[in-house]
Design brief:
The chain is mainly β and 315 residues long. It has one helix spanning 2-25, and strands at 44-48, 56-58, 64-73, 84-89, 104-105, 116-117, 123-124, 129-137, 146-168, 185-187, 189-191, 196-205, 210-219, 224-226, 241-247, 253-255, 265-269, 274-282, 289-312. The protein folds into 2 domains: 44-157 and 303-312, Immunoglobulin-like (Sandwich); 163-297, Immunoglobulin-like, CATH 2.60.40. The strands form 4 sheets. Strands 2, 4, 5, 9, 11, 14, 15, 17 and 19 form a 9-stranded mixed β-sheet that branches. The protein has a 5-stranded antiparallel β-sheet with strand order 10-12-13-18-16, with no helix packed on it.
């Protein structure tokens, strides 16, 4: 009987070992060494530090507190300290013993570094940066408890990088399954982590010596997008505008629909959060090869984080 139990135990151990090895062999969390980016559709993570602001305070100058905005760059573009503004909304600054300018910081003390991916595919998180509005005290005497929204409005300049492979052929009209690449097909496009993404890229032949690229650009974040350098104004003049730039090692690449720019660089307008950009590439080559294409999108981005503050009547 003991021998039978031992045999059964050995068989179970063997099955568990094989299953574990199989799971390890099919691990989908293995870093992708082909995709140069981490990806994602966010730029800044905006939160408050624990207890700043507190959940509740008292009136009549009984409680002094700070509001400490915690910023972490979960995307893949560095943010200069001079390209970040933070404003407190929802509170009347005079009710809390400060002036309006004390609720506005047009620059911050340090750069907000991007989240990075090393050569092995490991993710290196960005350090947190704190912006503090200190020494707030509710001044008046209340007849009863009141609740106020504490909103941190953050505007920052951000950037998306996208990479894709174009195909250059001696004969762009040829369909050869053995060729090093194909002209007429949808292509894979890689995006850095950012709220604006290049979501699709296709290539088509357009005559004997010309190819056509089509890029779909979409706003996939939760904030609002503005022309870079505009500082997220309240008017609509600069909203839904971004700066577009495309780089290719093949000459004579021009794109349509660019404002105030050349054939490879200029501003574009997003309609309902998206835009299709068409670029034309002249090709006269004696070789078939991959053309590495890089697209850079630059813009100002505005997001907010909000929490309630209860001001209680003191006795």
């Amino acid at each position: 009987m003991k021998k039978i139990q031992l045999v059964v135990l050995l068989i179970l151990v063997s099955f568990l070992t094989i299953a574990q090895e199989g799971c390890q062999g099919n691990n989908t969390n293995t870093p992708n060494k082909v995709d140069p980016y981490i990806g994602g559709t966010r730029g800044l993570s905006i939160q408050y530090a624990d207890g700043a602001p507190p959940e509740e305070v008292f009136d009549n100058k009984q409680w002094t507190f700070d509001v400490e905005v915690k910023l972490q760059n979960v995307g893949e573009a560095d943010i200069s300290k001079d390209d970040v503004s933070v404003k407190l909304s929802g509170l009347n600054p005079y009710d809390f013993g400060v002036a309006e300018e004390d609720f506005i910081k047009n620059t911050i003390q340090e750069d907000i570094l991007a989240t990075k991916k090393d050569f092995e595919g490991n993710i290196i998180e960005s350090p947190e940066v704190y912006v503090t509005f200190a020494g707030l005290t509710f001044q008046d005497v209340l007849t009863g408890n009141q609740e106020f929204p504490v909103r941190a409005d953050v505007c920052y300049t951000y950037q998306t990088e996208a990479q894709a492979d174009g195909c250059i052929r001696q004969d762009v009209l040829s369909i050869d399954p053995d060729a090093v690449c194909q002209v007429t097909e949808d292509k894979t496009v890689f995006n850095s982590g950012a709220p604006i993404q290049v979501t699709a890229f296709s290539e088509q032949s357009s005559g004997a010596d010309k190819i056509r690229y089509l890029f779909t650009i979409e706003h996939q974040g939760s904030g609002r997008v503005y022309l870079p350098g505009s500082k997220c104004p309240s008017g609509r003049t600069s909203e839904n505008k971004i700066h577009f730039k495309i780089e290719s090692n093949v000459a004579d690449l021009t794109c349509n629909g660019l404002i105030d720019g050349s054939g490879k660089e200029g501003d574009i307008i997003l309609n309902d959060g998206s835009r299709v950009i068409q670029c034309v590439q002249q090709t006269k080559s004696s070789l078939d090869y991959i053309d590495k294409i890089k697209i850079t999108l630059t813009y100002d981005y505005r997001e907010f984080f909000e929490t309630p503050l209860l001001v209680k009547k003191s006795t």
